[in-house]
Amino acid sequence: MIWAMQRILAVDYGKRRIGLAVSDPLGLTAQGLESILVSSQEDALIKLCALVRRWEVGEVLLGLPVRTDGTEGPEAQEVRAFGERLTAMTGVKVTFWDERLTSRQALRALRDMGRKLKGRKGEVDRISAILLLQGYLDHRRWRDGKAG
User: Is the pTM above the cut of 0.90?
Assistant: First the structure.
């Protein structure tokens, strides 16, 4: 049985640049979007609200910068506050997801593809968002018993 769902927008939040990925309508795969440059948290919120409308997003997955020991520091609390503001502005559910290793995995993926890393921070953020979202989608399918 095939069913459609609303898309999920993954956000690798940064103060100057935000990596983005969106799910397909079935919630199976993650596709990268262009990273966006932002000048402030307000600018980020406005741009993300527009993307939520454009892609008909039903959920935002926000990468949470958890420390290696599993605790949350000031950066994670800032992301949580940002997520609350995004929910208030869009009415869309925000889910926080551990992003501990996504940047490292993204850098490794670029190196494995033979890409030079200099000047590719936007691409690293985009790949980080893809990895974040695909991990979440895979986890949901596994959790819901729909894998394979």
Answer: no
